[in-house]
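Sequence and fold
=================
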Amino acid sequence: MDVFITGGTGLIGSAVVAELLRTGHTVTALARSDRSAAAAQAAGARTVRGGLSDLDVLRSAAEAADGVVHLAFSNDFSTAAALEASVAEETAAVRAIGEALAGSDRPFATVSGTPWIPGRASTERDPLPLDGPVGGRGRAVTATLALAERGVRTSAVRMPRTVHDRGEGGFAGLLTEAARRTGVSGWVGDGAQRWPAVHAEDAAVLFRLALEQAPAGSSWHAVQDEGDAMKDIATVIGRRLGVPAQQVPQESFGPLGAIFALDQAASSAITRRELGWEPTRPHLLEDLELLRP
């Protein structure tokens, strides 16, 4: 399969590209800079130049591919307005890709976050939140899955709060960045809220399985750890960086503070059973031990 991928040089995307190439697929990666193009080419992928706002480029690349993986996101969480702009850009991009694939029966695997359900771990059958700080992403993914009715084999690979590799990445990575910047490794509230996690290389395997096997309109959970307590995550980060670990105000994390305060455990039992996915890489707390001071 010749796969077009957005976000192919990020933490998750690099792992997905490697997994696809390792298993005999070919890859064309969207590259918005010389640096991204060089990284993708060094990994063995072809490149097409452009960003998520270049809708004609996205349509053309999707039309030429046997399948598409969407991972790119600007990741600007500095303000609520910046996050809203990032969501709007992504929404237009996935709509353009979906339109290019309509009627083709080709696979389109897009990225999502796992939902949070009060009192229990969320499952693949739970709906995504359509309101709140990231509600726009939920609406975009829901619309993409609906393209199953227009002849696109859509699937959503739902990412946990932390997708990690050698202790970097995801929400835990944001805690690490904040600890390095402020000299304090912090948690919100009592720190008992649980965050699910997965190693990037295990997530990459699930994206490949979604392209190869997932039925149209399906959702899957790339969850290895159902939920580590935020306080436990912050404590390991503090110890590894040599800074104190303690409770901090929710506002310390800007627009993400409200999300950080939620209990967000998630299960992947259905994904493991139906797609045969079984993560094998290090768990989050183990991987955080590789953080450099």
